[in-house]
Amino acid sequence: MKQIVAFDFDGTITNRDTLLEFIKFAKGKTAFYLGFLLHLPWLLAMKCHLYPNWKTKQMIFSYFFKGVNLDEFDAVCYRFFMERGENLLYQDAVKQIKQHLYRGDEIVVISASIDNWVKPFAESLGINQVLGTQLELSGTGHLTGRFATANCYGEEKVKRLLQLYPDRTQYRLVVYGDSRGDKELLAFSDESYYKQFNR
């Protein structure tokens, strides 16, 4: 039976939240801290479960990147990987991915992060499938600041996996995760590893 291996990205393959690191990289630390200060009421409401996580995330993303041309955005994503990638990766996670690939397992990264900056990391590791939160584009190819898909978090991770691999009887599923957002996917697996590389 084919074995599918699903890796979360932030905190599982990487050693920190890449959304925050990407904003700092793209906009600079001063703009980053100012932007988060302006959104502090919504961030606090989110922490208190009074405002949805995905709405807060979309609001912050829109503040920093609404109106940016997609090609320019993708170029920054690639530079982010080239300049910051090595320091962001758990080397034990990299080794585990290589072992799965050597055994012939099919690997997919399933992340709440925007897939534009996850893909360069995945491709460098030999992973071709990335399921992440996708961005909405205007007719002119610019970011609207909104998400084109549901935030790939929690139950959405299971839904997206089943869209890619619908017949659950035809494969064995191994999942690596590290947070509340991976709970449903970990429970859906045949074999799961929680915080395997963050100990």
Automatic annotation (TrEMBL):
It holds the Pfam family HAD. InterPro entries: HAD-like_SerB (IPR050582), HAD-like_sf (IPR036412), HAD_hydro_SerB1 (IPR006385), HAD_sf (IPR023214). The keyword Hydrolase applies. Keywords: Hydrolase. The keyword Metal-binding does not apply. SUPFAM superfamilies: HAD-like. One of its GO terms (molecular function) is hydrolase activity. This is HAD phosphoserine phosphatase-like hydrolase, IB family protein. It comes from Bacteroides uniformis str. 3978 T3 ii.
